[in-house]
Design a protein that fits this description.
Order of helices and strands: HHHHHHHHHHHHHH
Distance between the termini: 24 Å
Largest sheet: none
Number of strands: 0
Shape: globular
């Protein structure tokens, strides 16, 4: 799941003709933060993580808690983008503890990054608690709250809680941005599947996949493809379901994500004796061993 980088806008360079009001800017910090943000937006999370680490060190040298929070958020987000949930959790919790020692709470963005890492690590109870807290802070960060509601929907879907999925979908509303529309449609698909409406789930999953692709959210795209696979399996089309799981698993394997093994395993179970599918699954599995 991608996390909006709005917190970093506070540290971006100001357009340049007139000197900004307030204390002087730290050019080194601004340049490091801007380069890190650009690297992350260009799907270079390893580079972004290194640059955010430099920016975090500078923020600590500056002894600026707002900058420390923002750069810690960036570092955790970069780790999530490269599929390293343990590193993301460690970064978020380290900065949160540092802020707590100053008597300050963490931003909604930093807490959302921590909740997302917990979710990916299977620590669902902790992820749910933290996501609910972020969702309650919409006045501080509306985009983080939207993503927290989506995370709550995924958590509800995972435990088969239809009411929870429906509530999360309702909380997202009718956003204009494609990424948030994809969140809403994906939850509609998850709810349809829980209701037993596999045909509806398939349609919603296909729409979510298109929106994820347009948003360049390839992790979300894999998740939507896996939802398609589940719907197709319910519809009694194992070959098509296997292909959808294969496509989901192959993308996850390219990114080194843990979900790849589960989705490719489901593809293999449904492939039957289809030689073409089995060959493609073996190729995707090989990606995980690189």
């Amino acid at each position: 799941m991608r996390v909006a980088l709005l917190a970093l806008l506070l540290l971006s360079a100001c357009g340049g003709r007139a000197a900004p009001e307030g204390p002087p800017r730290d050019g080194v910090l601004d340049r490091a933060a801007g380069s890190a943000r650009d690297a992350l937006n260009q799907d270079q999370p390893v580079v972004a993580g290194r640059l955010y680490a430099q920016a975090l060190a500078r923020a600590r040298e500056r002894d600026d808690p707002v900058a420390i929070d923002a750069m810690g958020f960036g570092q955790a987000t970069s780790a999530l983008a490269r599929g390293d949930a343990p590193a993301a959790l460690a970064a978020a919790q380290e900065v949160r503890a540092e802020l707590a020692r100053r008597g300050r709470g963490a931003s909604a963005g930093l807490l959302l990054a921590e909740a997302t890492a917990l979710f990916r690590l299977g620590r669902m109870t902790e992820a749910d608690r933290l996501a609910r807290f972020v969702a309650s802070r919409g006045a501080e960060n509306a985009e983080a709250a939207l993503r927290a509601h989506f995370l709550l929907g995924l958590l509800a879907a995972g435990r088969g809680d239809l009411a929870g999925v429906v509530a999360a979908r309702a909380a997202i509303g009718a956003p204009e941005q494609a990424a948030y529309r994809a969140d809403a449609v994906e939850l509609e698909g998850a709810a349809a599947l829980l209701r037993g409406d596999a045909a509806g789930a398939r349609v919603h999953a296909a729409t979510a996949a298109d929106l994820r692709r347009d948003s360049l959210d390839y992790r979300g795209l894999s998740r939507a493809l896996a939802l398609q696979g589940a719907a197709l399996e319910r519809l009694g089309d194992p070959a098509a379901a296997a292909d959808a799981y294969l496509r989901a698993g192959r993308g996850a394997a390219e990114r080194g994500e843990a979900d790849a093994a589960r989705w490719l395993g489901q593809a293999r179970q449904l492939a039957g004796g289809r030689a073409d599918l089995l060959a493609a699954i073996r190729q995707a599995e090989a990606l995980r061993e690189r």
